[in-house]
Specification:
There is one protein chain. With 128 residues, the protein is α+β, with helices and mostly antiparallel strands. The chain has one domain: Nuclear Transport Factor 2, Chain: A (Roll), CATH 3.10.450. It has 3 helices and 5 strands, in the order ααβαββββ. Strands 1-5-4-3-2 form a 5-stranded mixed beta sheet. A hairpin with a 2-residue loop joins strand 2 and strand 3. Helix 1 runs antiparallel to helix 2. InterPro entries: DUF4440, NTF2-like_dom_sf.
């Protein structure tokens, strides 16, 4: 039987993949919003810090074709368990669309609510 920490690591990796699947989709805002804690901060290269305080600003910032890629790959993934209800995922990401390539480092801090759902508290990407 996997340990509690192993289950948390698996949950966080699955959530991070869900985030990137949403970020690279045709219309990322609705799916990303569902993954976020109401207090979340999202920091993308060359953009202001996004929050959920103003929903229309959030949706405008993530409107298509934001991060629209054909595929992505997470490398050098490290999952840090902060406690049983919080963790961070750090990695390098490579995403492609046709001949265009996006390379960055990423970090997402996740917290688990009383309902058992993991939500994003902070996400950031830095171009390589």
């Amino acid at each position: 039987m996997p340990s509690m920490h192993d289950r948390i690591r698996e949950d966080l990796l699955n959530k991070e993949r869900a985030l990137w699947t949403a970020l690279t989709s045709a219309d990322p805002a609705p799916a990303v919003q569902k993954l976020c804690n109401p207090e979340a901060n999202l920091m993308f290269p060359q953009m202001p810090i996004l929050t959920l305080e103003n929903e229309s600003d959030f949706h405008n910032a993530l409107k298509p074709p934001f991060h629209r890629f054909d595929g992505y790959q997470l490398d050098e993934v490290r999952i840090i368990i902060i406690d049983l209800m919080a963790g961070a995922v750090t990695y390098k990401v490579r995403a492609v669309r046709g001949q265009k390539e996006y390379r960055a480092t990423g970090s997402t801090t996740w917290g688990q609510g009383s309902d058992g759902e993991w939500t994003i508290f902070s996400h950031s990407e830095t171009l390589l």
